Amino acid sequence: MLIIGEKINILNRLVYEAISSKEMSVITSIALLQVEAGADALDVNLGPEITRREEIMQEVVTAIQQYVDVPLCLNGSPEMIEAGLRVHRGRAIINGITGDRKRMERLASLARKYNAMIVGMTIPEKGYAEDVEEKCSIAIEIIEQGKACGISPSDIFLDPI
Q1: Which of 14, 118, 131, 136 is the most exposed place for a label (fewest CB within 10 A)?
Q2: How far is the CA of 82 from the CAs of 19, 76, 161, in angstroms?
Q3: How much is the pTM?
């Protein structure tokens, strides 16, 4: 099991204000608190609404990695994720792979290119899984697609969201 801290999210008012004012010390403080509380990795989700998305993702990744030494779990558009992967030290984690085949293929290619691990969420292409059996079916599909794209099953984490 991997514990991922999820407080570095644009929906968190403190993060939103820190991004808006370019105050990275707030974000690094949130990162430190999560690691001190036992997080094995930190999710970085800056959302689609911000401007200069790729540049800000790089600034946030760089700032956080000056203070903590855990993998960052990058979440967002493929372009934002790749921007973060370019500056991430060590192995990153790509978050947000679902039953959507196009997104899986795009993010799997980034995982291969940057030697990143992935988080697969048991969400179908549209809507939500109706029961445990559907979630298990999606999990198997994510693992199989990951293997077909050259990703080792040991580099795939499953989120049964």
Answers
A1: 131
A2: 19, 10, 24
A3: 0.92
